[in-house]
């Protein structure tokens, strides 16, 4: 057990430099920082006595779950806290000035010019009606570092430095014309264009493919070494921290509960919370047994001689782009047995989600065949298609966007029952209560709205809604990619339990092979619209046959880290 007296826990003085690096005056020194939020006349503590340093050329990672205080800490560093937040104590010394006491005008000279921020979500962080190059160059113009013409030229250079191909053409595009990984690189370009001595990267790769994640983190590392930039990396992924950080700080309930080098934290964790994070991290536990149990012999899985619930053969989907035809899905075939999970993995643009949408009969294939329970459903229309959709449901990636914020949880979960005219008001209410209990939500969650729930709780609501009409197949489209590792573990365990108890089949879409290892029985690896490898998940992980599969496996963060 750790505590205040343990040499790596809580209140000990922090190290000024990574091992092997000569001690130097840090770029950033935070001392006993405390932050609270005023809510209903009371002050709720979010950050409690946090101390840390970051030296030039050093990467310090802060890890912890949502609500641990990570983001509040970094927003306090650049004084971009919510209106009801207040710094209640401590100092933020940045290059000889205390940012806690700095006036607004002084802070404006620091943000962007001396501290660059790479925010988490490029979807909401970029102006959708302004060209990318203008947004990158704006930093220079705001700080008087370049006129409009030179800012435009340097924006192209910054986009190239951030790893964007054909940066001149990219600079002329709007954000919606770029992929998620490209948009994240734009945010990096904005953060680095003024060559600030400190870059804060707040969950910069949490929703990206592992290969794109590695490329972006590689670029940040290269820039750090070339420019001697100090880096403060905020992440919930211990694998990323293990690969990239010189030191790791673990936060829980607003406090730093453990600190050390990656080897110290991973090989000899002292605090129970750190051990919990490590045990829940899929990328650090690639060798553990998968979550799914054996196929049950009772329930839907036992019905009928054909155990195949979904079979697709030769699926093709073409889209027209101007005068060109783009083949997004190219000859895809697979089948899913009852009470089993097939995962489709691959990078963005590989065709995973398009394949799933064809299987759901939400879009029409250009060619190929879809069978459900041995019936050809490729050309279903009207009532027959509606009947199919009662047997197949979907859980989307982002519970923030997939739940109606105006409705209560009870109304959201009962919505499929109302849509299909199932039951009376009383029986629907009873069914909702059963489902809320089934997905391990508190009973009073029925009356809450999504904004009053955590991300993991929202995803449980989405699962409950999908279960409401007792489907046989659930398509799970990146259902845990936006969640903390411990919440990921809870959701994956819940899905496995539901599969065992209810005989459900899953089509699991993911870019994260470490997560797939935990949940799937069979995995198909997709690249450029084709399945390049498919097989038992253990075989694919232990004996990958295709070079692309090996590339994906090598990109999993933390695989080279010491096992716990």
CATH topology of the domain at 308-554: Rossmann fold
Q: Supply the CATH architecture of the domain at 308-554.
A: 3-Layer(aba) Sandwich
The helix tally amounts to: 21
Low-confidence stretches: 1-7, 9-23, 293-305
Q: What is the CATH H-level superfamily of the domain at 308-554?
A: P-loop containing nucleotide triphosphate hydrolases
Q: What is the radius of gyration?
A: 25 Å
- Helix and strand content put the structural class at alpha/beta
Classified by CATH, the class of the domain at 308-554 is Alpha Beta
Approximate strand percentage: 15-25%
Mean pLDDT: 85
Shape: globular
**What percent of the residues sit in helical stretches (DSSP H or I)?**
25-40%
Topology:
Layout: E1 28-39, E2 42-54, E3 59-63, H1 70-77, E4 85-94, E5 97-98, H2 104-110, E6 115-118, H3 122-125, H4 132-142, H5 148-161, H6 167-171, H7 180-192, E7 198-202, H8 210-227, E8 230-235, H9 238-244, E9 247-252, E10 255-260, H10 262-267, H11 272-280, E11 308-321, E12 324-337, E13 341-345, H12 352-359, E14 367-372, E15 375-376, H13 382-391, E16 392-395, H14 399-402, H15 409-419, H16 425-438, H17 455-467, E17 473-477, H18 485-502, E18 505-510, H19 513-519, E19 522-527, E20 530-536, H20 537-542, H21 547-554
Parallel strand pairs: 3-8, 3-9, 6-7, 7-8, 13-18, 13-19, 16-17, 17-18
Antiparallel strand pairs: 1-2, 1-4, 4-5, 9-10, 11-12, 11-14, 14-15, 19-20
């Amino acid at each position: 057990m750790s505590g205040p007296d343990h040499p790596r826990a809580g209140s000990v003085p922090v190290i000024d430099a990574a091992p092997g690096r000569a001690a130097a005056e840090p770029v950033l020194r935070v001392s006993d920082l405390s932050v609270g939020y005023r809510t209903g006349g009371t002050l709720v503590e979010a950050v409690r006595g946090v101390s840390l340093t970051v030296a030039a050329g050093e990467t310090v990672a802060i890890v912890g779950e949502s609500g641990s205080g990570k983001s509040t800490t970094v927003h306090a560093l650049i004084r971009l806290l919510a209106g009801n937040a207040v710094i209640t104590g401590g100092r933020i010394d940045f290059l000889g000035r205390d940012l806690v006491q700095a006036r607004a005008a002084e802070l404006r000279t620091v943000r962007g010019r001396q501290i660059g921020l790479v925010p988490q979500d490029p979807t909401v962080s970029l102006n959708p009606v302004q060209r990318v190059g203008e947004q990158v160059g704006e930093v220079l113009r705001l700080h008087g570092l370049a006129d409009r013409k030179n800012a435009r030229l340097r924006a192209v250079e910054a986009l190239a430095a951030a790893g964007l191909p054909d940066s001149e053409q990219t600079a002329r595009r709007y954000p919606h014309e770029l992929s998620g990984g490209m948009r994240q690189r734009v945010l990096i370009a904005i953060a680095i264009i003024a060559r600030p001595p400190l870059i804060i990267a707040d969950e910069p790769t949490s929703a990206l493919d592992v290969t794109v994640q590695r490329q972006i983190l590689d670029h940040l590392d290269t820039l750090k070494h070339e420019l001697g930039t100090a880096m403060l990396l905020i992440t919930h992924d211990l694998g990323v921290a293990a690969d990239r950080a010189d030191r790791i700080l673990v936060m829980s309930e607003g406090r730093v509960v453990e600190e050390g080098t990656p080897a110290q934290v991973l090989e000899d964790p002292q605090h129970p919370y750190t051990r919990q994070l490590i045990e829940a991290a899929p990328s650090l536990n690639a060798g553990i047994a998968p979550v799914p149990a054996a196929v049950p012999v009772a329930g839907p899985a036992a019905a009928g001689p054909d155990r195949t619930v979904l079979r697709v053969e030769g699926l093709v989907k073409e889209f027209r782009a101007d005068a060109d035809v783009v083949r997004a899905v190219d000859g895809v075939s697979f089948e899913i047995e009852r009470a089993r999970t097939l995962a489709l993995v691959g990078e963005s643009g590989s065709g995973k989600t398009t394949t799933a949408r064809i299987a759901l009969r939400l879009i029409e294939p250009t060619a190929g065949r879809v069978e459900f329970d041995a019936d050809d459903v490729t050309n279903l229309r009207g009532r027959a298609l509606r009947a199919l959709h009662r047997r197949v449901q979907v859980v989307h990636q982002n519970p923030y966007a997939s739940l109606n914020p105006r409705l209560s949880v009870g109304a959201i979960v009962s919505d499929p029952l109302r849509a299909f005219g199932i039951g009376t008001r009383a029986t629907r209410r009873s069914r909702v209560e059963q489902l809320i209990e089934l997905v391990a939500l508190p009973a009073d969650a029925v009356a809450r709205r999504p904004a009053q729930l955590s991300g993991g709780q929202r995803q449980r609501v989405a699962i409950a809604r999908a279960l409401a009409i007792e489907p046989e197949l659930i398509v799970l489209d990146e259902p845990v990619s936006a969640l903390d590792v411990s919440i990921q573990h809870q959701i994956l365990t819940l899905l496995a339990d539901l599969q065992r108890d209810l005989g459900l089949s899953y089509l699991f879409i993911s870019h994260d092979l470490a997560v797939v290892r935990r949940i799937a029985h069979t995995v198909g690896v997709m690249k450029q619209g084709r399945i390049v490898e498919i097989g038992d998940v253990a075989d694919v992980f232990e004996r990958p046959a295709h070079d692309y599969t090996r590339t994906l496996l090598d990109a999993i963060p933390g695989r080279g880290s010491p096992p716990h």
